[in-house]
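This follows on from our talk about sequence and fold. Can you supply me with one protein entry, sequence and fold together? Could you add the entry underneath, on a fresh line?
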Amino acid sequence: MTDQPLLRTPLYDLHVELGGKMVPFAGYEMPVQFEGIMAEHNHTREGAGLFDVSHMGQARVTGEAGALEALITADLSELEPGTQKYTLLLNDEGGIMDDLMVSRPDEDGFFVVVNAATKGADFAHMRDRFGRRAELIELNDRALLALQGPKAGAVMEALCPDAAKLVFMEAGRFTLNGADIFVSRSGYTGEDGFEISIHNHQAEEIARLLLDDERVKPIGLGARDSLRLEAGLCLYGHDMDETTTPIEASLTWAVAKSRRASADFPGARKILKQIEDGVSRKRVGFKLKDKAPAREGAEIAHDGTVVGVATSGGFAPTAGAPIGMGYVPAELAKPGTEIELIVRGKARPAEIVKMPVVAHRFYRG
């Protein structure tokens, strides 16, 4: 517990005006829902949802690219201007300190977005390891909006046609209604979408402009969680943390092949050995066979013996069933493996499933 007052994003007043139910999250007052989690989830899958993710950390990194690359799993030499990569910030033992997006909007350094709960520690770690080789400038004067859903492209086309030309994992600088914005095209829902970084004083104006489009509705944290769970995307601090390596978290793909060859990332010896020899546990997806959802912390059993724990879980509206993620022994990680989730003291039948449960629909051009 902390006595620190909760922070508010530049869209707080708009959330309240729109009827958002505000809850504490990562040190901020954030909307968990507006119309209702199920309705907001379905709208994002069918139309376009607007999420306030201004609580996340944004920063500019300039100087030697190698200073940043030495701390993460991406190959920044492959990051051309106008592109973006998902990568992992590792501790010296190969544990995941955070997952983050790194983009290169132009020739002058990198734009970094990290998770809200870890941004202070992330930025302190980067500065400490950079020394004089690079500089990190926190962009506390910027808000971050996420426009997600199959109609997001059409909405962006109407307001900022140049940004609508981006494809998955591209990024750039644009002007929207007179505001200078930085836009990337990716998404934490599995749907097509855009992330819009904008100065704090212009955030509400642009949010209202987006919401004026009948295809767009405000979406809270509740639907954000159910959407990312269906998409098989991790939530830091739950599905991975500093005790978890990329291989255990089923994120081997996030360790660039060139970095594996050079073995110059934190914890490389341990992680390369895991790639070669395998791991004892793996992150998996599961689906329950009845309607009782299993939440984070529920025990996972196999043949009556507890073998793991759920790290995320809930009802998946699009899949029409309770689903989740968790860690099990590697030999049980194959899709189709029968397991049980212990829900309120009762073993509920389930099976390991391939992730994502709902197919990604990112726009790749």
